[in-house]
Protein: DUF4328 domain-containing protein
Organism: Cohnella ginsengisoli
Amino acid sequence: MLSNLLKILLWVLVALGAASFLAIVIFWIDVDVFIEHVYPLAGIILDISSAYLYYIDVVIYLIWIYRVHMDLNRLYPHYPRTPGGALSCIMVPVYSLYGVPSVYLTIGTHFQTEASKLKKEGRWVSGLAVPLLILLICANILNQSVKRMEEPSTALLFSTTLANLILYVVFLMLCLKISQGLRSVNDSRNENLHASQDAVPTEQADEGAQPVGWTASIENPNATTREA
């Protein structure tokens, strides 16, 4: 449920990021067209994405990553990171430079080594870990530069919206791949559990079954004697 909500919010954020990027491209190509047709809508998009949706996504994402690690610790008793440890890796300043990629590298590595069906998802998660950190740093620097300038250049706005858009896409891909991997592991565990439960009554029935001739001799011990 929570992962589905996060996916929807990230898809919306990606769509708004793409719209912002397209607006900057139009501004760069033709200022008059931008002012006449795009500017009013672009302002609304920027207000929604920056003032509301982004912060809602951050809160939902932190809850989601906590729940992901609860599931990982349940599915893998020896998983090396707790839910609280994962939040610390992401939220603690400076330490997050190591913690953010470490969280996703650990998930990706575990997918690849502990579940043969999840090697593809594991490679995706591991492969996006370091680029995510680079994008977070670049997007933060660019956004702070835009805020400090009264009239930022078109090139800076172009770079900022592009970095934000790619960052949103990376977060969406991580959410999709991790959710898909956890669902696959959980489904596999449930199938194995049902199979083992179905096998137990059959084994008990086989153990309780007795040879027909042996049963008959118990019921009628003189039958063989009379025939003889």
User: Anything to note?
Assistant: The chain has one domain: 2-208. The helical segments are 2-29, 31-75, 83-91, 96-114, 119-148, 154-208, 212-219, 223-227. Residues 2-208 form one domain.
